[in-house]
Amino acid sequence: MFDFHMHSLVSFDGHDTAEAMVEAAAKAGLKEICFTDHIDYFANTQVQDWVFSNEAYSSAYDSLHHPEVKIRRGMEFGLKPYNATMLKEDLKRRPFDFVLGSVHFVDELDVYYPEYWDGKTIFEAEARYLQEVLDCVRVHEDFDVLGHLTYISKCRAHPSPRPVIYADHAEILDEILRILARKGKGMEINTSGVDRCGDFLPYAPYFRRFKELGGTIVTIGSDAHTASRVGQYSDRACEILKDIFGYVCTFENRQPIFHKL
Ligand SMILES: [Zn+2]
Ligand SMILES: [Zn+2]
Predict the structure, then answer these.
(1) How far is the CA of 256 from the centre of ligand 2 (A)?
(2) Which residues are within 5 Å of ligand 2 (an ion), measured at CB?
């Protein structure tokens, strides 16, 4: 019914046009979607930032409409402990409905690839990643929802992709969830983990704990980079949120809207 995380060709790694993504959303029976194209900055000036141009963004989305699907416009900003002011600058580009904050890099290494994993056990790779997420949610104020908290579990370089077990990192995870709740930030149930590591990113017990610690805002995202994955497993994610919260959120003009399930 809702998919608040997807990438069209506006993102450097998207494969399909915005129109194709919207058509797929309509076919999947979704009522409302949000484009969340990447903005990731790198300290290494040799590497090109993953940043869309305002022109590409506007020409893809400004005149995009569908009779059955409400279309929201957002971004997925790559959080780093030192880039809070950069996010503030990017927010001046145009009005956005929704800002996902996600961690893709640790110590300037893309956790998706082997270099990050070299010399680390799975536990160490998870712990270092989650510490980075904690450092980011402590300093960042300008995102709405934390994207794929357990992204590390679906990385290509993971020696045996599996969900991050809550109990293995309970102390640091509790602290992350507590900060999100206190700051009025949400948590995403990212469905892309189902095919990649066997469960949602993160899985159901994280949301139960989030609620216990005062969290109220929850969104669903497929993280689709192709039209074929738009809305994938969003019905199953909905069931989980229905069970725990009884609702799911969408966003308009950076404000959460609560939809009873
Ligand atoms: Zn992401
Ligand atoms: Zn994404």
Answers:
(1) 19
(2) 76, 223
- pLDDT 10s digits, 161-218: 999 999 999 999 999 999 999 999 999 999 999 999 999 999 999 999 999 999 999 9
Ligand approaching nearest to the C-alpha of 13 = 2
Q: Tell me which residue of 215, 141, 117, 119 sits closest to 173, measured CA to CA.
A: 215
Please report which ligand is nearest the Cα atom of 103.
1
Number of structural domains found in the chain: 1
CA of 174 to the centre of ligand 2 (A): 24
CATH number at residue 157: 3.20.20.140
Radius of gyration of the chain (CA): 17
**Distance between Cα 76 and ligand 2 center (Å):** 6
Task: Indicate yes or no: pTM above 0.70.
Answer: yes
Domain that holds residue 189: 2-260
